[in-house]
TrEMBL record:
Domain Amine oxidase: 10-428
Gene3D superfamilies linked to this entry: 3.90.660.50, FAD/NAD(P)-binding domain
Residue ranges crossing the lipid bilayer per the database entry: none
Protein name stated in the entry: FAD-dependent oxidoreductase
Provenance organism: Paenibacillus lignilyticus
Signal sequence interval, chain numbering: none
Length: 447
């Protein structure tokens, strides 16, 4: 079986790494950019290692990456964010984020009775019997819950933080998604971690595993421009060549798949997914030549819906000696507006972000060695809200496989990319084994 994987992000690399272990499978991994990793690519500048966006791993001990670590013999280290130094800012007041019982007791965001109720809700989710899974959305649940406004706001803010979305979108997240996600996270012994050395540690090992098989090639800077079906095979066209494959895996955002398959016989089957919207944020990275302040590892501004992570407080490998790497994330609304309004909105978000830096990292501007601002960075190709539809790993009436953070799979964000890539590889391996099982055996006389 000769397989093409279109997209060299986390999902494509995962699928190719698993399939490289199948002796009957050859393939090509196509990636249009100069580097692998997709939105998880990493680069170095002035001694700082920068990731394109956030790269925390939620619930590492229950995460698909831990399964891959065992199955693919990956080797990486990780460090947990100090929960005691995760803070929320509301009004002009700072308080510990209610991430566990100790912080919940300390937090000033809730009254004593509200804390009791919130603990009860978390306990119910951990037992996987919470009522929220019976509601279409978080907003529907909160509307009927009878909870105090502070509890509702806290629920919204938790979802904002984990899904990288605005409060209005948090209310649109399906109840089943909320229940499954927090059931998994609250049971985790390692809720928020960084892989030491960033995404490159993972993507480089996946790349090496693919290359070591000798049956796969990685085609960088070679985007697929067209695909057609001929004589039982799929012919993929790039600027450099045409090549024939038995199976095709799309490991890229559905928005790009729609463009590639426009005016082909498969276009109509993508109609249910064409209106999917992506999760986009503003990313504000600053590498400082010395530590200007380290009051906490994470500060979330509940007033303006943005946060700053002191990434180097957890992962010292990302900075030169004595340096500090801070990453700000601002959730963005995708409400339609004119270009002029959008520009003004993004400028306002930038000023709010810089104000948060000013409040908690005084004189940071004088210490900047590296600065990068991405005003519209895609975090997830399909925002997991009720009006969107995650893409199945197989779409009915289509012969292709689909994986990525916008596809069906376990978890959110990067975990769904890993889990869907792994799942697609498993399904292809099963398909191959079924083909072998149905082949007639040759008689001794023929041999």
């Amino acid at each position: 079986m000769n397989v093409a994987i279109i997209g060299g992000g986390l999902a494509g690399l995962t699928a190719a790494a698993y399939l490289s272990e199948q002796p009957g499978v050859t393939g090509v991994l196509f990636e249009r950019s100069p580097q692998l990793g997709g939105r998880a690519f990493t680069y170095e500048k002035a001694g700082f290692t920068l990731n394109y966006g956030a790269h925390a791993i939620y619930g590492l001990d229950r995460h698909t990456l831990s399964v891959m670590e065992r199955e693919l013999n990956l080797d990486f280290s990780s460090k947990q964010v100090d929960k005691r130094k995760v803070m929320y800012e509301k009004g002009e007041h700072l308080t510990p984020a209610p991430l566990d019982f100790v912080n919940l007791v300390k937090t000033d965001l809730l009254t004593a009775m509200q804390k009791v109720r919130f603990v009860g809700e978390i306990t119910a989710i951990m037992a996987n019997i919470h009522h929220i899974k019976h509601y279409a959305t978080l907003g529907d649940y909160l509307a009927e819950s009878g909870a105090a406004e502070d509890v509702k706001e806290l629920w919204e803010h938790l979802v904002c933080s984990n899904f990288f979305i605005t409060p209005e979108d948090a209310r649109r997240v399906p109840g089943t998604v909320i229940s499954d996600y927090y059931h998994n996270l609250f049971l985790s012994h390692r809720p928020v971690n960084y892989v030491l050395g960033s995404w490159a540690v993972i993507t480089n090992q996946l790349r090496d595993k693919i290359n070591a098989s000798g049956r796969w090639t990685i085609a960088l800077q070679e985007g697929v421009d067209g695909i057609r079906y001929e004589q039982g095979k799929y012919v993929l066209s790039t600027k450099a060549r045409e090549e024939t494959f038995d199976r095709v895996i799309f490991a890229m955002p559905i928005q790009q798949v729609v463009k590639l398959l426009r005016c082909t016989p498969w276009e109509p089957f993508l109609a249910p997914y064409e209106q999917n919207t992506a999760t986009e944020v503003m990313v504000y990275d600053v590498g400082l030549n010395h530590v200007v302040a380290r009051p906490f590892s994470y500060i979330s501004d509940m007033n303006h819906k943005l946060f700053i992570s002191d990434v180097s407080a957890t992962d010292h490998t990302l900075v030169p000696e004595g340096g500090q790497l801070l990453q700000g994330i601002a959730y963005l609304s995708d409400e339609s507006s004119s270009d002029e309004d959008r520009k003004a909105y993004l400028e306002e978000r930038t000023q709010q972000m810089e104000s948060l830096f000013d409040r908690h990292y005084p004189n940071w501007r004088d210490a900047v060695a590296v600065k990068r601002v991405s005003k519209k960075a895609m975090v997830q190709s399909v925002k997991n809200i009720a009006s969107n539809r995650l893409v199945p790993n197989r779409i009915e009436s289509m012969p292709f496989y689909f994986c990525g953070d916008g596809c069906e799979g376990k978890g959110e964000l990067a975990e769904r990319a890993f889990s869907s890539g792994r799942r697609v590889a498993e399904r292809l391996a099963e398909e191959l084994s079924q083909v072998h099982a149905t082949k007639p055996r040759r008689h001794a006389a023929e041999l």
